[in-house]
Amino acid sequence: MLPGLDVAELPADAIEVGRIADAWGVKGWFKVLPYSADPEALFSSKRWFLLPTEKGVKTFVGTASLSVKEAKMHSDSVVACADGVLDRNAAEALRGARIFVSRSSFPAAADNEYYWVDLIGLNVINRQDEALGTVRELLSTGPQTVLVLEYFSDDKVQERMIPFVSAYVDSVDIASKVIRVDWLSDY
Predict the structure, then answer these.
(1) Same domain, yes or no: 66 and 130
(2) Which pTM was predicted?
């Protein structure tokens, strides 16, 4: 195992939040490419779980745990340092590693704010009690986020998109796994 990494088991609630891009400086810091514009999950968790890169040279196998000393914004990216990663060579060996964080370590979302990962798989029902589909993914279009739903029609998987804005979304109930919307099935 590489310096700074411990053998670990990926938590059942692990969410992939970014990847290690490259070494940063000469003292073991590394640059991280977060998958979110607001990488709070990276900052709030002091233990990251790593899986090797999917492409290129794999410098470790299996799941590893990394004890993060510090993670912070620097210019337009995130940089971090970890216990046991003491120099540039050790940081370079982490290049391409996929970063996972336990969902339970995410900071609490504010009222009427949701993590995208919590919305995926929820059923969407309109005011007429028609099932419109299941959230497959979310898209950021700049000014707004769009729910991408998957539903069956004529024995084929279809796609429906609904803007995730208060004008169309009446309620989100994570516990019941339901999003209620003001949207007709023939839109």
Answers:
(1) no
(2) 0.75
Digit-by-digit pLDDT tens for the chain (187 residues) are 787 889 999 999 999 999 999 999 999 999 999 987 778 888 989 999 999 998 888 889 999 999 999 999 998 789 999 999 999 999 999 999 999 999 988 888 888 888 888 899 999 999 999 999 999 999 888 788 999 999 998 889 999 999 999 999 999 999 999 999 999 988 8
CATH number at residue 71: 2.40.30.60
Residue with the two structure tokens 């299941």? 134
Q: How far apart are CA 36 and CA 42, in angstroms?
A: 10
Length of the chain (residues): 187
What sign has the CA pseudo-torsion 163, 167, 170, 175?
Answer: positive
How crowded is residue 43: how many other Cβ atoms within 10 Å of its Cβ?
A: 17
Together in a domain, 94 and 157: no
